[in-house]
Amino acid sequence: MSEAAPDRTSRISRAQRDALARRQAQFVWPAPPWYDFTDEPRAGEPCVLSFTDGRKAQGLLQNFAPEHEVLKFLPEKARSADTIAFSALLGVVLPNPVGVRRESVPDDGAMYSPSDQQPFFVELANASTFEGETVGHVHALCGLFLFLPAGEGKVARHFIPAQAAQDIRIGKPIGEMLVEAELASPDTITQALEKQKLLRARKLGEYLTAAQVVSQEQLAAALKQQSMRPVQKLGESLVELGFLDQAQLDEALAVGARDRSIPLGQILVDMGVVDVEVLHGVMAKKLGIPVVDLKKFPPAPAALKRLPAALANRYQVLPLAEAENALVVAVDNPMNLERMEEVRFIAGTKLIPVMAPAQDIKAALEAAYPRDAEETVRRADAALGAEQLTMRLSSEGGAEEAGEQQAAPIDSTLVQLVNKIVLDAVEQKASDIHIEANPGARNLRVRFRKDGGMVTYLEIPAKFRTAVISRIKIMSQLDITERRKPQDGKISFRRFGGLEVELRVATIPTVNGLEDVVMRVLVAAMPKPLDEVGFDAGSLAAIKRLISRPHGLFLVCGPTGSGKTTTLHSLLGFLNKPDTKIWTAEDPIEITQPGLRQVQMNPKIGWTFAAAMRSFMRADPDVIMVGEMRDAETAKIGIEASLTGHLVLSTLHTNSAAESVVRLLDLGMDPFNFADALLGVLAQRLVRRLCTRCRVKQEPSVREMEELAAEYCLDTPADAGEVLKRWRAQKPVLYQPKGCKECDRSGYQGRIAVYELMVTDAPVKRLIQKRALVSEIAAAALGNGMRTLKQDGIEKVLAGQTDMAQVRAV
Questions:
Q1: Any idea which architecture 530-690+750-789 has in CATH?
Q2: How does pLDDT run across 446-463, given as a tens digit for each residue?
Q3: CATH classification of 384-523, choosing from 3.40.50.720, 3.40.190.10, 3.30.450.90, 3.30.390.50?
Q4: Better-predicted residue by pLDDT, 212 or 58
Q5: Which end of the chain is less enclosed by CB atoms within 10 A, N or C?
Q6: Is the bond preceding residue 588 a cis peptide, omega within 30 degrees?
């Protein structure tokens, strides 16, 4: 017998083997502190997932990405892996034990490592508990990593996502450890705990400040002392006062280094190491922030005038005095930077915070700002229009351009003006607000997009352009100093105007260092009943028949802004019955309906349309609506779902019904499965509706009707003579736009949709299976009675709903 052939891997170089090993190690799992793994984690390890809904799943862990809070999981007996967000999980277990070895630690008495095993207790979000012993732990932003002893120097790895843990306790209490080390007696620990309980029951600042400020003279002295004292870091102060040890501080600092947007104090509170009261007290004592006794300290009348009563009450901020070109304000938490920035903008000056209990601030505000006077001013301001606010702004402002630092009266009016712009946009049903800054002395122009067209709403003096845009940036939490590159943000307008509206904000740099702002207005709307959408009787009956089937795929196609989402929700409203389970994946959720399970997409964490579709398949759906089939993966899953007993509704960005079929085939869909799944395709466009109050009747001439009939029948098998004969029997009347006050002199008010419904009958299915051309599929659909977009538009022209200029435009 000949010698066995050498192993193929032995013929490759060491560098190639190292590269192969690096590719196989596709994810990183942290080791316990003071330990290393004897083998690196590799893709394809067995794992068990516990979901928030109580399910468990076994399979292989193919990737683990804590920085994106997602993992890639291949379930047992599955062919493709799923991307799962940490937010859907209670825990991840890698049951196969892995070896660990302790790192060498200098034995010089100055460094201590944790004990080999520490007890732990975790209360999970579903009220269950998980406890035992762990060989060290890693507490990261994404969650908690535990390492349960498995014998022979090995551990089993567990991971609990951050949102799944309600309470975490690791290690023995300090008192118990002191008793075991004979450094304290049980009686001493008991007395210390009782003293701690009494201390924590006292009001904020009582046990950390020697005295509270009760007069203007004391306040001036306290502020002078604050400016002279050296700055001491918050963490150092907490350690010095004994509220946490150095190890806890180091752990918090490590968390903060990975995400610098979270303040250290917030990290310590989230870790459960320090109470909020203790944190505020340390800020008052060691950081030099004076504590004011508002029951004895009278606010200065000049300071109260710097902030409107409505804003002071909304943010619970009490102006106390003016000092060193700054406004002294009492707050319960000076570390709330968003609130402080908002108040700074309104006050138009630097703020110096002092501390007071929240209940004292509330009582002092009620005494400082009489409710009757505040309500009178508020109602008077609310009654002002945008033009009146602009005039007031001009009269209050100076000759120079207003920047970010404004006088208080100007900023107060500016805030009201920006709020008024948004409120009027919502009232006028505008889809977008455009703030357009022009160079030189030209006014800042505000325009609304209404019914698809741009309408000038207001012009604001040029000297306020920077202030207006800065105000919008502050509302959307953008960088007001950055004007060279575009920024994106959003505004939850309920915080500013009390209206349930969300605005998507985009800033775009323009010439001469200026900026434009465009805000998309997202108002929660209710869907139209299917019978009121605008379908003709034949199309309406066909659509109801198609979507009443228990399974299949129904598509709505058209360009951006053609009303596809509105139509989909009208279809869902028809299907939304108590005995039907409907899941929707949308980005964003613009229309809400009771009874639907609506899910917002978040691609940044891997929560895509495809990932949502996979999750829906495990959630016992009857109907699935996915916002858009924008890639091959989503389309493939949608077709598979429709073939396995589910009705799937979705949209495509295509120009016609027949083109949608070819687009999906070009994405790689199997033509036979696609032909079996597809029920129909609805193409649509939006046209402007004629204003019924001012439209002008026009009797069409014979020549006009003949030309209209020829255009109606173009590229279709319809006969122009027969169409003309049908129209003459109906005695059609055409209308033209005129313009009146109700429609802003445009002649149009609102929009209607024109439709093209292609039902996939047997001839169309055969063409799909053959991968036929768009023209061949369209011809077959037209032969089966499909009416084109233009034909539907002309029918609506003859019904007096729109005119031919609008139909031809789309």
A1: 3-Layer(aba) Sandwich (3.40)
A2: 999 888 888 888 888 888
A3: 3.30.450.90
A4: 58
A5: N
A6: yes
